[in-house]
Amino acid sequence: MSTAVFFHAHPDDEALLTAGTMAMLADEGHRVVLVVATAGERGLAELPHGDELGRTRMEELHSSASLLGCARVVQLGYGDSGLAIDGGVADDRGDDAFIDADIEEAAQRLADLLKEETADLVTIYDPSGGYGHPDHVQVYRVGSRAAEIAGTPIVLEATVNRDPLLKGVRLAARFYPSIDVRSFEVAYSAADTITHRVNVRKYARAKRAAMAAHASQASGGTGDRTLGAMLKIPPLLYRYVFGTEWYVQRGLPRGTRLKHPFGSP
């Protein structure tokens, strides 16, 4: 049995990016540990920002983790940095915001957990943080450094295949000109840089249930959000659309195509 630590910025990130892989590893008998940097207390939701939303989102996280078979859930205790209207760092963030945390201090905190768990694998995000959220970028910085300190042998950057995503966005932009296509041109990872394509269709029901556990994030702001829209996709189509999860492992030859987080071809 191996131990895999999944490091995320906020509750619900695990459901969107890595839930199928988590459920698969747990089903195979591996120990799965879920770590979040923040409670997500500044996320868009019907509830106002603050402690109440943070508590709600952590309760949702524990429900999601249980559905996925996680053995342990850890919250590092940093504040949600929020997101400015222009997609940058929010000026009104708190003093404990994750984006302002000292990299070495935060990395050591995560490294201590990796050592405690004798982790064989840790997931982080790609350098751009996927779509650029400041806390996601910080997960990359802190997580990659923590793996160095702890000597964790496998570091996987959870990402999305940019190529089909960009094609879809360009098509949608023909009908909705307000869509910022340029922002997607640098989001996530190009297909030829992706080293792991994990087939998680068998675990689509668990992934969907994990998404549904984060009810506070299905709506908020101007209406349905990304997670809410995903949950409206019919089950058979959902299984197809969300049946693959993608990762990048640095140092492997370009063109590597692995099918399992632990490296099976």
TrEMBL record:
* Residue spans crossing the bilayer: none
Q: What InterPro entries is this protein classified in? A: GlcNAc_PI_deacetylase-related, LmbE-like_dom_sf
Some GO term, biological process aspect, for this entry: which one? glycoside metabolic process
One of the entry's Gene Ontology molecular-function terms is: hydrolase activity, acting on carbon-nitrogen (but not peptide) bonds, in linear amides
Keywords for the protein's UniProt record, in alphabetical order: Zinc
Q: Which domain of life is it from?
A: Bacteria
Cite the SUPFAM superfamilies for this sequence. Answer: LmbE-like (SSF102588)
| Stored Gene3D superfamilies | LmbE-like (3.40.50.10320)
Protein name per its UniProtKB record: GlcNAc-PI de-N-acetylase
Q: Which organism is it from?
A: Planotetraspora thailandica
Q: Which classification does the entry list for the species?
A: Bacteria, Bacillati, Actinomycetota, Actinomycetes, Streptosporangiales
